[in-house]
Design brief:
Structural class: mainly alpha
Oligomer: single chain
Radius of gyration: 28 Å
Number of helices: 2
Order of helices and strands: HH
Number of strands: 0
Distance between the termini: 83 Å
Strand content: under 5%
Helix content: 55-70%
Shape: elongated
């Protein structure tokens, strides 16, 4: 009796999962050249900011070459 009930519950769960409305996939936007330039400049700004923060910290050791 319990095996039949278990099988029924599993079957119902799988049917309910398949009936759920899935999210609609979004359309991927093609990046324009200006978007690529903007992304690169943001990355460069972050890198410069990080480098300056490390250089300004008192813990870092600097070497003059």
């Amino acid at each position: 009796m319990m095996l039949g009930l278990d099988r029924l519950v599993v079957n119902l769960k799988s049917k309910l999962r398949s009936l759920k409305v899935s999210k609609k996939p979004y359309d991927k936007i093609e990046k324009s050249e200006s978007m690529r330039v903007e992304i690169r400049s943001k990355k460069a700004r972050k890198l410069i900011e990080k480098t300056l923060k490390v250089a300004d910290s008192s813990k870092s050791k600097t070497f003059a070459f």
